[in-house]
Amino acid sequence: MEKPDGEIKEPDKRDIEPGHNFIQNIVNTDLLNDVYGGRIRTRFPPEPNGYLHIGHAKSICLNFGLALHNGGLCNLRFDDTNPSKEDTEFVDSIKEDVEWLGFSWDERLFYASDYFEWLYEYALKLIKAGKAFVCELSAREIRDTRGTLTEPGQESPYRQRGVEENLRLFQEMKEGRYEDGSKVLRAKIDMASPNINLRDPVLYRILHAAHHRTGDGWCIYPMYDYAHPLSDAFEGVTHSICTMEFEDHRPLYDWVLAALPKEEYPCEVTVIPKQIEFARLNLTHTVMSKRKLRALVEEKIVTGWDDPRMPTISGLRRRGYTPEAIRDFCERIGVAKRNSMVDIALLEHCIRETLNKTAPRIMAVLRPLKIVITNYPENSVEWLATENNPENPDMGYRQVPFAREIYIEQEDFMENPPKKFFRLRPDGEVRLKSAYIIKCEQVIKNEKGEVTELRCTYDPDSKSGGPASGRKVKGTSHWVSAAHALDAEVRLYEHLFLAEEPDTELENGGDVKDLINKEALRVIASAKIEPGVAEMKSRRCQFLRQGYFYLEPRGEGTAELVFNRIVSLKDSWSKARKNANQQ
Ligand code: ATP
Ligand code: MG
Question: What is the pTM of this model?
């Protein structure tokens, strides 16, 4: 809005905090110029035709974040205008996910389907104003007469119908007198517009399908481009934020809102919203569109929408991600207009950063190799202190049991090791974390020649923290006491797609089944975990040297422990940054 003297005020650059995005700048300018009377209202408008993914998280953080930051409010609105693919299962999951991410819509929960009556009324008025007409061309004919980027379209032969006839036909469409696809309501704009979206776009179609909320109440349904701007206006939305593919639809968004004066609206509207586009999130090794995610579920390539390999919010939650880490990720990727590909290593970096300081360390042996310490007294147990988190001394110490029989990782022993192998070898020594130095005296094998057990001796003077603990050996191994260890199933996850940009591969004719990473889930049926894990207050911990893990909540009565690896410890994102900085 212009000030009386015609000058639009720009916010002082010094008022723009670092980390602000271009949309915040637009909001600042609007607040400064009192465009919406100081109001800021945004909305998150998912279509309930699938579960939310990490791309939606970006939109949620942006919309709810802008409202929070500017003293405004954000609505949750289900864009449920296409009954054929929508379902209450999706409505419920979306609500759960938004809440879990830490945002609340309070009483501002809306459905586009609640506006069907108003949208219909508005359409009647458009017809009366000569701005919409009932067209009987088939979908195919409409497409064929739409023209191209270089040629104008052709006007429909039904375009000049009189108002009365249009009103009658539209009412009859609503009454269910016609078959799907036999008629549509179209806006009367301009078949020669350089913007194809303005070439008499379809506003309503006939669809004899039950809707998950309105049942059989309607057999005509509004199109997105028609329902969306009006829903925004009905709710008093000021800034309607969407992704870049809607940029070319903005003139239609504006046309729908300006086609009738405010007084003609079916309800009181105080603001005419504006649409602002930003670039959608794309992640490496991931597909993001709901259509493709749905196919993975339907073809049973994954176990469901919440499979921990999925980039859905429910999948990330089951994997063990925290809402804080996802919000942090959304903050770091920023908001821009240029489409780009974000490295999934950044998302992994964010969860590592969150957990590094908070997750207790636990000793867990994933592929156990038994060791008998022959000079350690039988039936004796020592409880040894070990730090819970070297990055956070406030987390203190816990006691781990040490006894004659222990497990170490199979990979921590090699019979014929290469030069730089610093763990156990025949006649070699290694320090057991927070315990003693042991020496490998004897290797026991089965008839196939596989190593099944080691006989070792320990050095009683080498106790960690003890008076003579100064003796140094190169390697340290984690371990658990065989008698005390808990059995657990451990699930190791990797990227769902091997290719960095699976979308490109799919567009080039690749088959999902070939592109999928068959090693994206490896199950270890019986890992050995130190008993302290049962008393852990948080569900997330770091298994030393193995990564961050999440203890899956199980149903009542199931005793077994199942851990999902959220992420390994190798931070390829930080490493890539360091290399880039050195160059
Ligand atoms: P998809 O293409 O994955 O099916 P969609 O855009 O059809 O997504 P909607 O339910 O319509 O899904 O999306 C709700 C909101 O989330 C919209 O405002 C949309 O722009 C936004 N959104 C969807 N995908 C992304 C993404 N990858 N990055 C950022 N925002 C997204
Ligand atoms: Mg959509």
Answer: 0.93
